[in-house]
Amino acid sequence: MSPLQVDPAVLAEGINLMWVLVVTFLIFFMHAGFAMLEAGQVRSKNVANQLTKNLLTWSVGVMMFFLVGAGVSSLVGGLTGGGGYSIAEAFGVLTTENSADWVGWLFGAVFAMTAATIVSGAVAGRMKLRAYVSYTVLLAAVIYPVVTGLTWAGGFLSSLGFADFAGGMIVHGMGGIAGLTAAYMVGPRLDRYNEDGSVNVIPGHSLTFAVLGTLVLAFGWYGFNVGTAASVFAVENGELTLGAFSYVGRVALTTTLGMAAGAIGAGAVSLFKTGKVDTLYVANGLLAGLVGVTSNTDAITWIGALVIGLLAGGQLPIVFEFVEKRLKIDDVCAVFPVHGSAGVLGAVLLPVFAVDGFSVGALVSQVAGVAVIAIWTVAATAAVFGVIKALGEIRVDRDHEIEGLDSSEHGVDTYPEFGGPDTAVTDGGTVESDDIIRADGGEANDGGIKLVTAFIRPDKLSDVKTGLAEIGAPSLTVTNVSGRGSQPAKKGQWRGEEYTVDLHQKVKIECVVADIPAGDVVDAIAESARTGEKGDGKVFVLPVESARQIRTDKSGPDAV
């Protein structure tokens, strides 16, 4: 029997292309993590705006990177690297029919979009959507491609010896620095700082979203780092050999150790600073640890991954506090300490923990590369937003910011009030009931009109609606309110900073009755809303002087 004849070059190319596509899709899935992470760290009135930014970052950014950005990267690499360049070749992806070229472009595009989406978290809650989208266009077309041109495309930083395996500085460091610059240009959110410079804590609306987004990002990060080992097989002397997969185990190991150490480092510093392990710091620290090892994951020892991860996570609370309280920059989602400073740290420490040993020349190259990327990013970002700011288009109006960007920018409400399933069905007409038996033999409410007002726990609204429907009083008005009574105040914590919660969320119910005894309404509300704990609320009964139905012009009890 003769062996099956297979061209090893064809086999290697097919498997390599399949591998790159799989990890590309995994990196794309990171956008779901970014969306949840950022949505969880903003207030509920700005969630839809943050989600829209994430959607448009991909949609607008990937198109611009295809049409312009990929070509700009190739041109910058040729122009600054001392090699030849051709405009036709640089933009060849627009005309080629080679599947390998298109796969390579898409692999680069998901990295570009990761850098772009980082910025949205820094400027959350006050930047106009058009300003953010305009910047995304320029970042995907020019700002980020210049960085990749100087490095991965063979530009002068590459010639200098600057190394960044999967984008710890090129993608994340650049995105974090751009986010910090953008946050400075747009200014802090309303009420973030007092006149004396002190800081007001503005917690995000969902820690659950933030942590789930963190875990989704961590999962996708394996595609980001391990996937950069893009060639599974190579062909040497007509035989298949391992390509970049010769070191893929090291990449997987150091990525995992850096991730774990980052969470531990941030949690430890949080515990030291506040006496508590802050959940959001642990989540952000996990990501900072990943960023810290992303540029060096293929070339450092496992001990180096632990140390860099611990340092990247540990610096997070310190750098965030410095940015917030010293620089007075409102970085909503902590994108600079998570991506910016952690990316810088990892790139600079690569030579210190390199498998091949320490080299002063390598350290100089890393520092020079970090400096060039940072200077270009700050200058380009400041120039773009400077123009937008001069045109008066960078920030939403004060009233719109107070109202929330979901409503003012998109006309939606992410969390519609009382949007749960109906528990009391009524067609909006009157409830006829002629068989009510009065214990005293007289008229309900002495023939008058009563207003029953109650303040209850939000989660008991459904039970109260059911209780009122059962006694024939389905008509009511419901409002979200905040207040305080016997329920004690409590302390909250957001990124290690305490704040007092003395106004508790309640639902206000108003029910006007005439032929239904107000006492029955009070009993129905009290029984349905009771938990036995402080904070159950109160019910009040007030006389109503008169009433008038607009549609029929009826007045008095008949109007009710």
Overview in brief:
The chain is an alpha+beta fold and 560 residues long. Residues 418-441 have low confidence and may be disordered. It is elongated and about 100 Å long.
How would you characterize the overall build of this protein?
- The strands form three sheets. The protein has a four-stranded antiparallel beta sheet, covered by helices on one side. It has a two-stranded antiparallel sheet with strand order 1-2.
- The radius of gyration is 30 Å and the shape is elongated.
- Strand 5 and strand 6 (497-501) form a beta hairpin.
- It has helices at residues 8-41, 47-80, 87-90, 99-122, 129-150, 156-160, 168-186, 207-225, 248-274, 279-294, 302-326, 335-349, 360-390, 398-403, 405-410, 461-470, 518-529, and strands at residues 233-236, 239-242, 449-456, 477-483, 490-494, 497-501, 504-513, 537-544.
- The chain contains 17 helices and eight strands.
- Helix 7 (168-186) runs antiparallel to helix 12.
- Helices cover 55% and strands 9% of the residues.
- With 560 residues, the chain is of the alpha+beta class.
- Residues 418-441 have low confidence and may be disordered.
Which SSEs are present, and which pair or pack?
Blueprint: H1 8-41, H2 47-80, H3 87-90, H4 99-122, H5 129-150, H6 156-160, H7 168-186, H8 207-225, E1 233-236, E2 239-242, H9 248-274, H10 279-294, H11 302-326, H12 335-349, H13 360-390, H14 398-403, H15 405-410, E3 449-456, H16 461-470, E4 477-483, E5 490-494, E6 497-501, E7 504-513, H17 518-529, E8 537-544
Antiparallel strand pairs: 1-2, 3-7, 3-8, 4-7, 5-6
Helix pairs in contact: 1-2, 1-4, 1-8, 2-4, 2-5, 4-5, 4-7, 5-13, 7-10, 7-12, 7-13, 8-9, 8-10, 9-10, 9-11, 10-11, 10-12, 11-12, 12-13, 16-17
